[in-house]
């Protein structure tokens, strides 16, 4: 298409897989086909406006990855919704129907989030740190909340070092209230 900047699109054949729970789901009205990390994108309204805006690609930790271990497994979750129905969820499953995410105490894992919606979602995991990775899987910075722009795919490492039941949700309260919430259980 003339004038369409495709420089940030994933390589041909790198189509995103989606969980079966999104298929024919009345609570899911869109899916991202070629998500990108967008770590250097300041966001809508902040691009090319003559001001410098801090982005995730500008952040660097003053310390190395505190855990140091490679993740033993990866959990991929899709941020889903239906704009007209005001329905928000993880993997097309609202909180009231979702099983908890189960982590083993002491394990190191990677969580990969794919934002299939047209809204930004600040995702927060209670009780544990989120160690944001760059596009190559290198440790960047430790965060409490990971901001997920539309069409993005970002990964972070978590060490399950806090036993118990923890909230995992979008920090936009109406998204959380409408179902973009999960329970994380850390068991021995």
Automatic annotation (TrEMBL):
This is Multicopper oxidase domain-containing protein. InterPro entries: Cu-oxidase_C, Cu_oxidase_CS, Cu_oxidase_Cu_BS, Cupredoxin, CuRO_3_CopA. Residues 71-187 form the Plastocyanin-like domain. Pfam families: Cu-oxidase_2 (PF07731). The lineage of its organism: Bacteria, Pseudomonadati, Pseudomonadota, Gammaproteobacteria, Pseudomonadales. Keywords: Metal-binding. GO terms for molecular function: copper ion binding; oxidoreductase activity. Residues 1-30 are annotated as: Disordered.
